[in-house]
Specification:
heterodimer, B: six-stranded mixed sheet, four-stranded antiparallel sheet
């Protein structure tokens, strides 16, 4: 099975722009989560989707949004980019619907640089 | 809120030796899950080991084992017979039951295995 894929792998934007990142989960996985990884704040949970519904959300401003499509692919959008949004954005997928702490499979990430 | 603390930013170990990475967490929950994830340089995060809080028996996966002390809220990872391929960032993570893949990560420990 192919792993979790994320596109693009690298992205450079300027302040004030918006960006859309894409994540394709492992085939058959219906849960997709997003994390932001920075040297200062570490790994922080953004949100989780299952069957096109957001089930969980972290403490990020409304500039960060996401969605999931019927094929389980997910996108996250960041509007009005700030310098502090520079980070590695990780996507993870899981086949499970219940919150029983099953393994999440991570993608390689999208490295976003905001200038 | 849940917090996860990894107090060792960086550690080194000689090949074939044993090393223990520390992790403590703070929670008022009784049912939860704990994980160790490995992030090799420029590669994807992968699950090393998983522990369910209601299980008293410590989890083991080949050369990897944990020492789970629920009362002390401690979850350390022991790597036996260290190999060069174990060089990576190691993250401890917590998820409360029913929280739909919302992981709380520690700040990570960079492990260097020396030949």
């Amino acid at each position: 099975k192919a792993g979790v894929t994320q596109t693009p792998r690298y992205l450079i934007k300027t302040r004030g722009q918006q960006v859309t990142l894409s994540c394709s989960p492992i085939s058959g996985h219906r849960s997709v989560s997003w994390y932001q990884q920075t040297p200062g704040q570490g790994l922080q949970f953004l949100f989780e989707y299952f069957s096109e519904t957001q089930r969980n959300k972290g403490n990020f401003p409304g500039r960060f949004s996401g969605r999931q499509f019927s094929n389980s692919r997910s996108e996250m959008n960041v509007s009005t980019l700030e310098l502090g949004d520079s980070a590695l954005y990780l996507c993870a997928s899981s086949p499970w619907s219940q919150g029983r702490g099953n393994e999440q499979f991570f993608g390689p990430g999208t490295r976003l640089t905001v200038l | 809120a849940q917090t996860v603390t990894q107090s060792q930013p960086e550690m080194s170990v000689q090949e074939a030796e044993t090393v223990t990475l520390s992790c403590t967490y703070d929670t008022s929950e009784n049912n939860y899950y704990l994980f160790w994830y490995k992030q090799p340089p420029s590669r994807q995060m992968i699950l090393v080991i998983r522990q369910e809080a209601y299980k008293q028996q410590n989890a083991t996966e080949n050369r990897f084992s944990v020492n789970f002390q629920k009362a002390a809220k401690s979850f350390s990872l022991k790597i036996s017979d260290s190999q060069l391929g174990d060089t990576a960032m190691y993250f401890c993570a917590f998820m409360k039951q029913g929280d739909f893949n919302k992981f709380y990560f520690g700040s990570g420990t960079k492990l260097n295995v020396k030949p």
